[in-house]
Amino acid sequence: MDNKGSSQKGSLLLLLLLVSNLLLCKSVASLPICPSGAVNCQVSLRDLFDRAVILSHYIHNLSSEMFNEFDKRYAQGRGFITKAINSCHTSSLSTPEDKEQAQQVHHEVLLSMILGVLRSWNDPLYHLVTEVRGMQEAPDAILSRAIEIEEQNKRLLEGMEKIVGQVHPGVKENEVYSVWSGLPSLQMADEDTRLFAFYNLLHCLRRDSHKIDSYLKLLKCRIIYDSNC
Amino acid sequence: MGSSSSDPRYVDVTYIVEPDPPVNLTLELKQPEDRKPYLWIKWFPPTLVDVRSGWLTLQYEIRLKPEKAAEWETHFAGQQTQFKILSLYPGQKYLVQVHCKPDHGFWSEWSPESSIPIPNDFSMTDATVWIFVAVLSAVICLIMVWAVALKGYSMVTCILPPVPGPKIKGFDTHLLEKGKSEELLSALGCQDFPPTSDCEDLLVEFLEVDDSGDQQLMPAHSKEHPGQGVKPTHSDPDSDSGRGSCDSPSLLSEKCDEPRANPSKFHTPEGLEKAEKPETNVTQPQGPQSTSVEGKIPSFHVSGSQSSTWPLLQPPGLHYSRSSYHSVADVCKLGLGTAGAASTLLDKTDTRALKPSQTIETGGEGKAAEHGESESFHSKTDQDAARLLPQDKTPLTSAKHLEYVEIHKVSKDGALALLPKQNENSGRAEKTSTPETSKEYSKVSRVMDSNILVLVQDRRAQNLAPFEEPAKEAPPPLPQNPAAVDLASFPAAPSNCRLQLGGLDYLHPTGFMHPFQ
């Protein structure tokens, strides 16, 4: 009897919390736009793109700073850059390399490419945080940025999925993404190998975040402003 | 070995782009109706940067400053190509520049300067209001000034009516300004103002005590001259000189009758004796006492008529050889029996200070001897006496036991013969005052028991004490009226009276009476 009463009370409490959460979420003007669980949440495409661009820009800035920090601290004079060219796991996604190529790709394709890259980085980012934490003398500048990038990447992914749902509603999408297999390299005992693995990962992250940011801006100007930003 | 090629340097174009500066920087001054005017700045991105497709995203920054300023004012404009500046200094020429930067590149160069002059009538509303207020106030001030100028005089006269200045016939203001008092006063008929040293003589003479005379005013004598008080040199009371009779022009003729009833008690040994006599006799000694300077006070005659209440001056025998009579008021005091009246009189005399009297006092202080009288002093004293009289009347009339002394007559030498007006005692009191030469009357030192005036010599103030002592002795024997200091002398031997009376001019009639009883 007591258990039943207490469980009922607990469920009631939980329901109350949920409702209050929903209400609170509605009152907050900032993200997320649509509270979790809401189905008919309509945010304009323009706003979606604006938020996406802001996030992509933010992520790119963070990754760029993180790379610079790592390069300055660990990779000076090691020539890592030479070996890091064209060694990213997302190279297989055949993304456009310059502006002309990007402008010739259809926005649906481009959108799917962006999604693929974003999905490809979920796993690496997670391990990056874990491994940076495990480093002796973990530099906070790198660790904090790594944590932030992981968080924002998830958000951007959600936003992009919404955009795709609005741009191409009803299209069943192939969730194509690249699989990252560089984890053993991050855990190598050899410091040089490990450092190079980190360097490479951070370098690829900076490049891919820049791609995402560029593509999104292109798409925004093309879709929202009709190429007249 | 070394290598023939350097290590490759990898560059990401994204991070090394420095775009061209923005172009077409335009400035526009916008002035909306209800709001403050602002500067609207517009520009275009550089031509080679593909911002339209979104491939590059530029961020802009503008800066502006007044032409003469030294520091630039920088504003970040973000990705917009327009900007509003609100805080502007009117009347200055502003310079504006803009530059841009891609997301991950470098800042471009600053665009060429664009200038725009800010007109002066920027904050027109505030300035106009203040100007309007200033003009209005100026107009109002002008109007007021004009009104005052036109009607100022009449307004001033209405508010502050002119005070008419005194005009005295024969009074030459110019003389006054020059400070020549003698000429001025002579024009007015005054003589010897301020009183000269002759006043001292006059003073002295006022207080002369007539030894021989039965009526002798009490001299303001010093106790040091016990014998002086009894100078026999004074005119014989029987002599006509100084006799203060009603017929005597020098005395207050009006109330001659009354004073007759009140024997004056200014005394000398003879005077004391006379106190024993009936009232008439008593009055006599008083006469001379009060008016010390009979002949010397021709004006007294004049005032005598007026001052009915004045102690009569007994012409003969009443004269003060050397006593200094400070003021006619003092004489009056002598005759006054009531303390209140006396005090009042005293006050009045003191305050009044008939100038001559004061000067006389001062003059008399230094002197104790007979001498010439100053007629001017007389006149003054007359006037003062006349003035005093009316005042005396009021207090006197209110007092019950009014012991008033009239100046019976003025002796030749200027001794005042005082006659007590209503009370024979007062006369006696006066009589007992020893006429002494070179005695100076001072102010009433104190009043005893409301009917006795104690006069004290100014310059011989120290003599008061001795005089007072005997006065204390007097009271016991006098049941009714406490003896004044002067009185004290009475009970004592006549010589004592003389002594003591030197400084104290007023003798209580009872005191006088006592020794004789």
Helical stretch tally of chain A = 9
Oligomer: heterodimer
**Total individual domains of chain A:** 1
**Shape estimate of chain B:** elongated
Instruction: Please tally the β strands of chain B and state the result.
Output: 14
**What top-tier CATH class of chain A fits best?**
Mainly Alpha
The CATH architecture of the domain at 13-120 in chain B can be named as Sandwich
In round numbers, the mean pLDDT of chain A is 83
Largest interface: A-B, 24 and 14 residues
**Head-to-tail CA distance between termini of chain B:** 164 Å
CATH class category of the domain at 13-120 in chain B: Mainly Beta
Major sheet details of chain A: none
**Separation of termini of chain A?**
66 Å
CATH homologous superfamily caption of the domain at 13-120 in chain B: Immunoglobulins
Q: Kindly identify the CATH topology of chain A.
A: Growth Hormone, Chain: A
- Describe the strand arrangement of the main beta sheet of chain B, using strand numbers: 4-3-6-7
Low-confidence residue ranges of chain B: 214-237, 250-399, 423-438, 460-504
Strand content of chain A: under 5%
Summarize the amount of helix of chain A as a percent range.
Answer: 55-70%
Mean pLDDT of chain B: 60
User: Percent of residues of chain B in beta strands?
Assistant: 5-15%
Pfam family, one (chain A): Hormone_1
Binding site for Zn(2+) (chain A): 57, 213
GO cellular component, one term (chain A): extracellular space
Family (chain A): Belongs to the somatotropin/prolactin family.
